[in-house]
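Field notebook, page 741. I keep forgetting to write these up properly, so this time I am using the form the group agreed on. The chain and the ligand, adenosine-5'-diphosphate, are recorded exactly as supplied. Prediction of the bound pose follows.
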Amino acid sequence: MAQKTPPPDTKVDAPESPKKGKLRKATEKSARKDESRTETTRSKATDVRSSPETSLGRAVPPTKSDTLPSEKTPDHKPEKDTAHLAAAIALEEKSARKALPKVSGEKRENAEPKKKSPDAKINRADEKKQLKLVPTVSPAKPAEAEASSRDLKKSPYPEEIQSAPISDTDTSSIPEPIAAGDAKTAEQTPSEATTTGATPAPEPVRQYSKPLEKPEESPEPESVSLEPVPPSAIQAEPEPRAHHHASTIPSMYIVQITPELAPVAKVGGLADVVFGLSNELEIRGNHVEIILPKYDCLRYDHIWGLCETYGDLWVPWYGGAIHCTVYFGFVHGRKCFFIEPHSSDNFFNRGSIYGFNDDVLRFAFFTRAAMEFLWKSGKNPDIIHCHDWQTALAPIFLFEIYKFLGMTHPRVCFTIHNFKHQGVTGTQLLQATGLNRPEYYCHYDRLRDNFNPHAVNLMKAGVVYSNFVTTVSPRHASEAKDQGQGFGLEPTLHIHHVKYGGVVNGIDYNMWNPEIDRYIPHHYGVDNIEEKYKNKKVLRDRLMIADNEKPIVAFVGRLDPQKGLELIRHAVFYTLHRRGQFVLLGSSPDGQINSYFWSLKHQLNDNPDCHIEIGFNEELSHLIYAGADMILVPSQFEPCGLTQLIAMRYGTVPIVREVGGLADTVFDKDYSYKPLNERNGYVFRDYDYSGLESALGRALSCYYDYPDHFREVMKNAMRYDFSWKNPGQDYLNIYDLIREK
Ligand code: ADP
């Protein structure tokens, strides 16, 4: 048992001076705090479900004669996302009248020791924990605005391509799921499954990873450059060569089609994933290109050598075509194509990436444009990797249109970063995108939404048509398929289970590295962790919070109900009550949520131990990861979560709910089955105040009472390898599995 010693950072942190105290007068503090606000309107999809939504943990893949899921009686009512918040406010106000609950130490019921195999890559499907969480889906919203006047010209396609010559019941265009060994024999096509009425037994979610080979010199990247490479661009941003890996898989040509890319177009983790994965794939000798929209709000200061590369791209749209220009540029060494449509629809010149009524149409257009560009420019990638509902139509375009125009080689991997947003819209989308046989496409086996028979579901299209589907952690893959977290896609995931799995995201170690991070003033590593506390002081100075012995608990993320808003709010007050400081950085496209956090900010503005920053601020987020002692991630559901991975890299101890990727990456200091030196944070199970307090309370107690132990947890977290090394290999294995050999 360690002796009680001062908290870990007391050597560096000077006690607060009276002068400094004066500095924090309310007026001055408000003035400075308000300076750096940046409101970023950020939103995910606009869903237009019009039938009651329900958790589908109970659902069974229907036969053709079955009643539609939407026609069944829903077993719970739709719930508006912000209802959680209202309830939380009421609860909080009620509890504020009482004294804050006394902490009852460590609550075993919330973090029981697990007696499971310590296999790090857990196959969780056999772990059928009945989580209390029942996710809800956004309520119905009006269909997206009709496309306004367009710059159209007659479609360049022969008639037979526009309406492909396949009968309405023909599913031959849907790619056969490709899986290793026995998976192939167990395979059923969607139509087989539906006609036989077979209910696929819940399958373990597969982890498609081969053990890494012994590292040796990796082959040089193929020089397959298909476009002019501005020499200035190459000099400006040398290719990072942080680490090399051997691979027995021959190099591939991979195209990522994505709505987000860090740091030029970032809303959430998807942006980081596309950048980090592409970087890793190139380091391993593959040729990677990224296609994204040319938003007006791109961070152009991070694009090198931007130049026009294809000036005359006509993209089929509503029976005509829209003229587009394609630009090429490097984003920190990654080769990127930016598509700019010239149309009065003004798809990507709106000041932000998401948040518009016609989001589904905007991204359907982008995906069609990306495929058209690949075809017209003669590109023939081995793999097309698309992400989330925004680009989920890529495989249907490939296998229903471009295959018949000669693009027979590429195979498609589809990654789902968030099941909550699926891109559900009216059937006019089919007409817009040139999928001209509504009765064929709007079929339960293909695009028809599992709830609403009059809507199409883009994410479902991605699942049905892709050669392989991943989500971003094995735990979440299982939760989505078997535990009601698929937001209605459970039956579809069951039907396509042989081509479905989970890969935990990595983080880009060039971007997130406390030893070289250019956004933090004091660099440090596991061997000189004391330097971290100099960043803590800088963070305090910047946010005008007191310089004292207290630990800083932080939250960084989207202020979305998914992130556990009521628990975040509760954590603010609980931390202050337990002699901690709280720093929050986040924003929401939802006005109600935003104004709620603005009022919380005003309420706590004069508190010297708290700072709430509403907005998106990449630079500040780095300083918070480096300066905070703990990061809080109390999500309702979390497909992977990057904030806890980044925090651990910076020696900031995560306090997380045991769900999704959080459960796959954070292991409780007191109760984990892992050896002591692999325990890297605090975990709670129940989504309620006492669950949160059980973990946060233990972390705060440890910080004060056993600082040496706390320091060990920090170091354990820093020693974990959350780079793209392992997930990069996993994705290569998947690509290799599905590629045309
Ligand atoms: P999600 O993808 O659900 O938004 P993740 O945890 O996977 O959540 O990824 C969030 C990423 O976005 C992290 O890199 C985090 O640092 C960043 N981020 C989220 N909100 C903000 C913000 N307000 N300012 C700066 N970075 C943010």
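OBSERVATIONS:
- The chain is about 30% helix and 15% strand.
- Confidence is low (pLDDT under 50) at residues 1-31, 33-172, 177-245.
FOLLOW-UP: compare against the apo run.
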